[in-house]
Write a structure and sequence with these properties.
By secondary structure, the protein is mainly alpha-helical. The chain is 85% helix and 0% strand.
């Protein structure tokens, strides 16, 4: 146990964990931005919502790690393949949550906003965005779990030489049981910390913003 504690705070392992967190922030950040753009652009158009929902459903039905061989063939081993897996893993749950929320927006509310002269951008910011926040938060939470698990798996096979997934594989190959256990514990602990410290704080802020702007 003493070795587990010591190694977990060593400079080498901190660098390993930081590499994974960096990939998660970049890849999942792209997922959230893409999902918001696609979901909100499709929101006012029924046909666009239908096509986007179908596409997101197809992507979601494929385990994200299954994209890795395909991406390696196109992008090669390394960062780009791993990051793309993270983007794919996190994208669909957020897109689907946005679509579900926008379909529930009251037509009367939309018409009233249009009567007051709201343009497309104002409709998006003043009507759609406040309405989607509860579902969006759920989608972000689900997508984060997908992205984190897929990141670790992609690091194990994607040809990178740093990261928690890579560290697990390396420790297994040299029969380092302590290293494997430490990796598993840290992966679980980081996921919990991200959920408790970041997502819950984000949820409170967004819900407070929604209350301040009203969503009746």
């Amino acid at each position: 146990m003493s070795r587990l504690f010591t190694d977990a705070f060593s400079a080498k392992f901190v660098d390993t964990a930081t590499s994974s967190l960096y990939r998660l922030v970049v890849g999942y950040g792209i997922s959230i931005c893409l999902a918001l753009v696609l979901g909100l652009l499709a929101a006012p158009i029924s046909l666009a919502r239908s096509y986007l929902r179908a596409l997101a459903g197809i992507v979601q039905s494929v385990p994200p790690i299954a994209w890795t061989p395909f991406l390696v063939l196109i992008l090669g081993f390394g960062e780009r393949s791993v990051l793309t897996v993270v983007v794919i893993a996190g994208l669909s749950p957020i897109v689907l949550s946005i679509l579900n929320a926008t379909e529930g927006v009251s037509l009367n509310r939309l018409r009233l906003a249009q009567l007051f002269g709201a343009n497309r951008l104002q409709l998006t910011l003043k009507v759609y965005v406040p309405e989607i926040i509860p579902d969006l938060l759920t989608g972000i939470q689900i997508g984060l779990g997908n992205a984190w698990r897929s990141l670790i798996a992609a690091e194990m096979v994607g040809g990178v030489n740093r990261g928690l997934g890579w560290s697990l594989t390396f420790s297994s190959e040299i029969a380092d049981m302590a290293g494997v256990i430490m990796g598993i514990v840290v992966i679980g602990a980081l996921a919990t910390l991200i959920d408790r410290l970041i997502l819950q704080s984000l949820s409170k802020r967004l819900l407070k913003w929604r209350e301040d702007h009203g969503s009746n």
